[in-house]
Every structure is written in structure tokens, then in C-alpha cells.
Amino acid sequence: MKTKFFTLCITMQLLLQVSVSVFAQTAGDNLLLGLPSEDWELSIDLKDFTIEKSNLDAEAGSIYLLATKKDIGMTVSVFIEKAAREGNYIDCRSYYWEKAAKSPLPKENLKLYEKAEIAFVEYDVESYQGKKINYHSLNAYLSHEGYWIDVHISKTQYQVSDVALFDAIVNSLKFEKVDISKAFVTASMAFYEQNYPYAIAGYERILKTEKQKVNIDSKIWRVTVDNLGMAYGITGDLNNAKRIFEYGISLDPEYPLFYYNLACAYAEMGNLENMLKNLEESFKRKTNMIEGEKFPDPRTDSSFKNYLKDKQFEQLLKKYNM
User: Fold this and answer.
1) Of 69, 103, 111, 306, which has the highest C-beta tally within 10 A?
2) Pairing outcome for strands 40-45 and 118-128
3) pLDDT tens digits for range 174-187
């Protein structure tokens, strides 16, 4: 199965070239943080900051980002994860601040307040371990569609005039619907790099958006369905591979690779009858490939290696001059 799957990367690369420029326009100066399984992203203005750490755990559903602006002693971290329980942004603050409040830092001018569906904790640390640091800390807690977000902004040698720096970041925080072209680029790069769990989550995100009646370019949609099904197949999840290819056929019954890859899934399941049925349907439509794609050769496809001497398989290939 894997041998055949990688022949389709040519199509992915062609579509990546189309999509990258769209992403550059969409992102602007704000950084977009989103999980591949979700159809939204958190937008935050970190212009002129250096990204020190960026960790995504697609399976756990969490993101951690650390950014600094060392010339002025400013640090921003963002943590997104599935909510520990049902609750809003105030519940989010209660959950995280209960832990953070136990830190040994002396907290002066401590304030807890809310504004525009964001819960805040703000405090100062004038000195620490005998050294004057004039440290100012602000946590902004948000809640969105089952996720909790903790944005921490801090600065050493803080002055009253620095409040504008903090406000600029807080005021930039907003949730945006994911850009399909950008999501496609991200998922496809993961597929190309053989990071299949990440690719699966990203492609599923696109289909989730598509099911909400968002218009998607037909080529991007075909490759999304095809690569998603293949990613499931490569990781041994043949039932989900079958589900995805059947979904593709239900909406685009003339695209041959959906039938072909469904035949591959049936072949690896040991289902000869459905393998032959779908393989024949793919042969009937082999002229309907996306421009630049090449129809696979079943004789060299690892999915069919156990059927190369099967009479029905041989007869079908001869019938269609394969």
C-alpha cells in the first residue's frame, strides 16, 4: 500500500504551490495558532517577537508557544488545551490560577478582573532574591469551543508607560475561522513528511469545514479526501480509509482514485469481490484524473501484491489494457 501512496505526492506538491501564497496574505502581521482538528485559530499580534518554542501535540489537543522580545525584556507565552471541565473563561482562570498562585514569587498589586469575555490576573514583583526587577505579569484567560487558553505576558523593568505594549497584545486576541488554503498547506506538508497523525487531523479539519457548506476548490477537495484516506490506510486504519473513500465517491462519483484507493483498502482487508468491483470502476474513469496526475499501475502496487496470480485480477487488467 505505501509504495502506491507516495506516487500521489506529485499532485500534492502542485497544489501546495497554488496554496502557499494565499496563506501569506491571510496571516498578515498576526500569528495564527490552531489545532489541526479544529476549524478556528487564535490570532495574536507578536510582531517583532522571536519565537523561542512552539510545540503542537495534535493527539492531546494542545499547543504551547513561547516568544520573546529580549531588547525590552518582554515575554509572551500561549497555552491552548482541551478544557479540563465544562466552563467559561472565568472557570478557565480559576483552574489555572489555583496552580499559578502557589508559585514562590511575591505578588504585589494583585488584581483579578474581567473584560470582553477575557478573565485577567495582573500583579507586580518589585524585587526577587534581593534583586530589583520591576517585573509585571498579566495572564489573559479565554475559553472557546471546548478549549481553554492561557496567554501570559510579562516584562522586566516595567514602567507605567509600558501598559500600551500589554494592551496591544491583549487587544489583538481574537478567534478566526481557519483559512482552507492554509490548512491544506499545513496538512499536506505533514503528509509529505510522513507525519500521518498530524496530516489526518488537518485533513479532517478541512472536511469538517466543508461539511459546514464552505466552498472549497474542487482540486483541493479531491486531494484532501484522497490523502486523508491514504493516511488512514498507511497507518493501518483500513476502516476509516474505507469510510473516507466512500464519502468521496458519494460526492464525486467520477473521480477514479477514490475507487482505486477503496479497492486498495478492500485488497488489504482480503475482500476480493469488493476489490475487483471498485478497481473496475476506477478503470472506467481513468481519464478523469486531475491534470498532472498519473493513473497508478496495479501490477506494481503493494496493495495488490497478493493478487498478482489471481485469475480474476489478471482478467480484469487485461480487459482494460492495464
Assistant:
1) 69
2) unpaired
3) 998 877 877 888 78
CATH architecture of the domain covering 2-18+179-319:
Alpha Horseshoe (1.25)
- Predicted confidence (pLDDT) per residue in 302-315, tens digit: 899 999 999 999 99
Q: SS3 sequence, the chain?
A: CHHHHHHHHHHHHHHHHHHHHHHHHHHCCEEEECCCCCCEEEEEECCCCEEEEEEEECCCCEEEEEEEEHHHCEEEEEEEEECCCCCCHHHHHHHHHHHHCCCCCCCEEEEEEEECCEEEEEEEEEEECCEEEEEEEEEEEEEECCEEEEEEEEECCCCHHHHHHHHHHHHHCEEEECCHHHHHHHHHHHHHCCCHHHHHHHHHHHHHHHCCCCCCCHHHHHHHHHHHHHHHHHCCCHHHHHHHHHHHHHHCCCCHHHHHHHHHHHHHHCCHHHHHHHHHHHHHCHHHCCCCCCCCCHHHCHHHHHHCCCHHHHHHHHHCCC
Length of the chain (residues): 322
Instruction: Indicate the domain borders of the chain.
Output: 2-18+179-319, 40-177
- What average pLDDT does the segment 57-82 reach? 91
- Provide the CATH topology of domain 40-177: Protein Transport Mog1p; Chain A (3.40.1000)
Amino acid occupying residue 206:
I
Is the whole model's pTM more than 0.90, yes or no?
no
- Reported as a single tens digit per residue, the pLDDT across 271-282 is 999 999 999 999
More confident call, 209 vs 134: 134
